[in-house]
Amino acid sequence: MAGYNHNQVDYEDEGVSGDGSPSVIPTLQELQSSLATSDVFTRKSLTRTVVETFRTLYALALQSPEKDDNNHEPDLREVFAMLPIIQNLAEDSEYLVRYCMVEQMPHLSMFFSESKEYLGHLTQKFILPLLVSTLNDTNSQVRKTCHAALLVLVEQNLVEISDIDKLVCPAIFNVIQVASAEDQRAEAVTLLCRISPLLGRDITLRHFLEEYICLCNDASMQIRKICASSFGEMCSVVGGDVVEKELLLHLQRMCSDDLWGVRKACAEVFTVVASCVSMQTKWYTLSPLFVTLLRDESRWVRLAAYQNLGQFIATFHEENEKGSEMSNDESSGLLDETPDIAKQTEPAVPDLVSELVDQETTRPNEEETEDVGHPANNHQQRSDLDESVKNEILSEDLQRPPKPPPSPWSGAVLPTELTELLSGLQVEEQKEVSPTKYMFVEELSNGQLIWREPIAELEVEKELERVYKKLGEGSLVEGTIPGCDNDLFHHTNLTPLSTSPLPPQPPYTPKSQQSVCQNVIPQDLLDHYLWMVDPSHSESGDTEMARYCAFTLPAVALTLGKDHWDYLKELFKILEGDMQWKVRKTLASSLHELGALLGDEVVNSQLVQSFVWFFKDLDEVRIGALQHLMEFFKLLNPERRKYVLPKLREFLRLDNERNWRFRLELVEQLIAIIGYCDQNDISDHIYPLILSLLKDKVWTVRFSAVTALSSILKATHPELRTITLMDIKTEIAISQKWYLRQSYPKICEEILNSDSIGLEQFCEYAMHPALRLRWDRVPNVRIALAHLVTSKFMNNPYFSSPINQHYIELQETISLLKADEDRDVRYYFNRNDPDENAKEIFDSSKEGMNSD
Questions:
Q1: CA gap 696, 687 in Å, rounded
Q2: How many CA atoms lie within 13 A of 75 on its CB side?
Q3: Residue-wise pLDDT tens digits, 400-424
Q4: What is the DSSP string of 417-436?
Q5: 537, 507, 577: which is closest to 306 by C-alpha?
Q6: Beta pairing, strands 439-443 & 449-452
Q7: Across 444-583, where does the E strand assignment appear?
Q8: Where are the beta strands (DSSP E) in 283-364?
Q9: CA 20 to 30 Å from 274, out of 53, 285, 396, 544?
Q10: Three-class SS of residue 416?
Q11: CA–CA separation, 231 and 219 (whole Å)
């Protein structure tokens, strides 16, 4: 917590030990005498001893209470004499002393809570008023520490909520309203926003909400930014009804704030706000508002919006859990009112022109330089514009939604140039026109309504030429619009038209979109999400955009559902081949989640190819696929599992051989997938990998591979077990490398512990190679054998009985190891005999003295 740290101690202070506790606890008289000193550091050191002095005096008072005839309570006069000392330190003239004393307030309150019988009331009567008075301190560090202390008191339930309501809340409001320093007001607003979720809905609605709304419109940009950053927390506290009725309007205002930091903060809280409102509000209000942030003029606002786009889209899944998606028949109430952004049409002619204007301009970007003169781009713009206008004019069922997103020209008088353009779109009056075919156009600022007749289809091409001619003459592409008030853009949150290129469009349109229409999320949000992988982001420096997209892809896929995977299929392919390894790693780490969401068909036909492709990538990418190998493997059908298993050998090839943790992860995943493979697959594909890992240079990897080997032996039939044991003997037991021979006793021990094979088969194929290691020249190998013999062979009746074919050899091994020249080998045979061990230690120490 900012400004407060339980372990933040100056160890240089005299009288304070290294753990922050006083080495010598002063008495009450010493504290009182030291309080009058002029040395700042002496007074500062007193603050460190206050809590322990309190504890000491209180313990002494309980141990030897002075009782009278009527009162059997302990004498706490010396304990209460500490309170003036604490108050003087908290009001010291030096800010460093005040800071250290305020830092001890939560510790004091915790001690008072532990001693609730006699001192519990001091938090309310003494600590809380002292902290409230510190809210007006002149030093910022002291104030922030005070804020942190108050939050600790509330979080730990050390004070009553009613006390915070009566004492703290009015003090915070007083600082916000009276303080002249902007930073002091900002700190108080931050405290208000952070303490509101801790106090609950009732107190927040009664005291904080009205003040918070006023602060959202404060003249200080810093205050507005703080309010925007905490908007999500406030929405979570007050609930959806209050959010929709009172708070959303202020969110809309802050999304068009002049300060880009405020707009960026709004983009970061959209997901939390969306989780508090209804689906209808997400469609009508939040979705169009979020699109404006995605097209913001500031690069940092756009990045924040795109970073949260996937999470915002995921909030639309909440209403789809019952019915997967909303069909036209099942959701007539919502879909009739929900603007299908893929086919969004506005019946009003002024809105049609606004649509044309929006497609021809974007808000100017102060961070980037844009290319607007390429002929191909102009041709594409003209083609897109042509198609858009045709859809607008030729639509037969234009119908105004009950609550459409507000038009940017709403409430403003149309400029002269646009009025002329509107008049050009009028057609000759038809002979017979039904009144029901008249369409609503616009409500102007003076309350007048404009009505028009349907546009004749025969005039479409001519009117398009007129629109293009108007757009090409330059009157609509200047910095201001002729005949329009310059303040229009400020009031309508629009930017003057410029020669910027068209708003960003998705790099492709899924083919399935022509036959399958999704109604799960607004199409405009989906288009912007698909555009996140556009190569232009890398050229402009927004390299993190693709990683944001890959990170939220499972959530978006969950929201759309497996029926609409085709919308994301090409996006997935682009992310799979992205140049940044972080993007590919993110995608590789989430393939198992996508597979669980999309079902068997997509997993076995599409995702498995990508999963195997990542096996050949960089180590940083492959680890993402490897860590979830089992989770993805179990989603495959048997045929595709046989396709994946031979590819696992790619994991043995490493860019950095020192990365032994990669091989350790491989062993653990191989153990996990053994249960999903048949015996032939285990023998052909998994066992060779384990055998290779048994010979690894790192002991931790070999140790884990031993566990995997026992699992393999348990899962295979006896014939394969025999072959496996013979291979282990050849590759491990008689290897030229001593660290492999050292592993063989551990393999035998693990096999016996897991009962992977029968004792007869073990004696026939594994026991003799183990006992032969008694002649090994490396002591570490003989030590491993001594541990195996004493822990498994000597304690097992089968091995230690004459019926064992290797009984005589076992006895010879025991005798030889007991007399081994290495003391560590003999230790395992003498550890049950303390006298013998003591003799061994004495003899070894005597030999060391003689050698000296």
A1: 15
A2: 8
A3: 333 333 333 333 333 344 344 334 4
A4: HHHHHHHHT--PPPS---GG
A5: 537
A6: antiparallel
A7: 449-452
A8: none
A9: 544
A10: helix
A11: 17
